[in-house]
Amino acid sequence: GYIGGNDSLLLKSTDGGETWNELAYSGVTYYPGDEHILNLKFVTENIGYMTTGPYGGAYKTIDGGTTWTQLSTISLCFNEGLFFLDEQNGFIGGSACFEGEKIDKMTAGVISATNINSSTNTADNRIVDIDFLDTDYGLAASYSGYILRTTDGGNNWDTIPTGLASGVSLTSVGVINDTLAYAGYDTPDGSGFGILVTEDAGLTWSMDINWATFYYPDYLCL
Q1: How far apart are CA 97 and CA 55, in angstroms?
Q2: CA distance linking residue 83 with residue 56, whole number of Å
């Protein structure tokens, strides 16, 4: 297992998470103020991907995190979310330099941009998390508070409102089955209630009162 954190911290466990050791790794360029590992996805014990920054970029390792190589063909300026089916096929999400959300797709090792039908046109509204049920249906969470939805393998994405107030950012998304999915969010004023749920494959979203609490939490990871 692997854990990425702030200040370029990368931890690795080889005993099922009982103990963790810090990795001294190479190949990653960090910019001042962006020295953070934002997302990690390993498809085998040794092959994995990560995003850094959010301005840092996306990287790949094939030796268990010891050395990393930057993916230089992605079209994003700011990056964070990622999802990989295997070494050659996956997604990296973020935003363009002077635009809103963007998602790049890797197919057989080749990276290309996907189509988002209605971007929010704000660079801060980058994609922060991506999850797929299978090779066709997937969801992506944005800082804008919108969910992006695809049913054609990530080539095209619809922008779905969640009903969150302006300024409330999505943090995570988890696809459970072909109808059920959840999304977490972060409220700047601490007014959170429950997590968001969809029961129609991401087309509409509502607050799930089964997760309701009076402690007003922020839901950062699902």
Answers
A1: 10
A2: 18
